[in-house]
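Exercise 7.
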Amino acid sequence: MTAELPPGGEGPAPPSVAPATGAEERKPEERKEESGERIAKYLARAGVASRREAEALVTAGRVQVNGVAVTHPSFRVQRGDIVLLDGKPLDPPEPTRLWRYHKPPGLVTTHRDPQGRPTVFERLPAGLPRLISVGRLDLNSEGLLLLTNDGELARLLELPATGWIRRYRVRVFGEPDPARLAALKGGITVAGVRYGPIEAVIDAVKGTHAWLTVALREGRNREVRKVMEALGLQVARLIRTAYGPFQLGQLPRGAIEEVPRRVLREQLPRSPRLKL
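Solution. The predicted structure, written as tokens, is:
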């Protein structure tokens, strides 16, 4: 399960170990020209958390290397080092893996929900490694959710600069205006938030509702719902059908399927951060 920071960013008190100094452990600045990888990147690739969250774990003093507390995010992990989180050893990062998951509505995309609602990760089958999501789908949204064991990959695929299109089928109540939908290609500002270009076309109109296909590159929090509301449309269903080159296809609701490694090598952006 992905490590999470409680409110306020403070973690539990770390084990009673001395900070990494002197002869016990080389300081981060003494390792910066060596081989190995930064501790935050190591934790992200191990599926513990995203790199930003991993940096918070380090600075909170929750990470130890070879029994010595590490508090500097630039500290480098060497081959053979033993890394602990909250006193528990972590397995070395596995090669990057990716899964397609058909998220049903009614699940939150988090490892632990303060309100006690069911989560995506509670519904996954046993035997999988620690997984984190590539972006999120909100409680009532459904469809394709990419899951990975590599926090570096999740961060890379979420960046707008990666250029991957998220595609959705959207059922709305109301009468969509083709001209206003077409104008979304130039972006739109809603409640002071500027959203980038959105492609939206009408697939079918049936009485008081319509089906749209919506495509965007940023995927901000509840972006499709907020933009449709600004156009006078109420979203009744929102189904993600594609994320970049990966498609929902005929994957049954609630099912999960790993993407073959050959496909990963062909489709993923080239990055020295990934271990394919």
